[in-house]
Amino acid sequence: MSNPITSWVKSGMETYKEREDKMVERVSETSINSQKFSDERHGPFKTYNCFQGELRTKPNYRQTHAISSYAGKDIGVAGSYIAVRAYQDEFAKRRDEILTDIANNG
Known about the structure:
Layout (H helix, E strand, L loop, with lengths): L3 H9 L3 H27 L38 H25 L1
């Protein structure tokens, strides 16, 4: 006969494999996020003197939408890294479609 409190605690404990799987997932997510951060800050779209901080106490940056139909979408925020990434993703999809079409039709 075992102690009910001990069995209850053991039932809630995670196994070694579960901990290892969560650790692998955390490491991969961190790696991907750090690469995204690095790409956005060091890519070809880096602005002049981007390393300097904003000196104004209240910077005049408000998200503006180029076209109202794009409001609420990543592509809609004009002048942001998010919009650039969204456009690059769309261009890559279109490029892949063109290359597939060329490969199929010669």
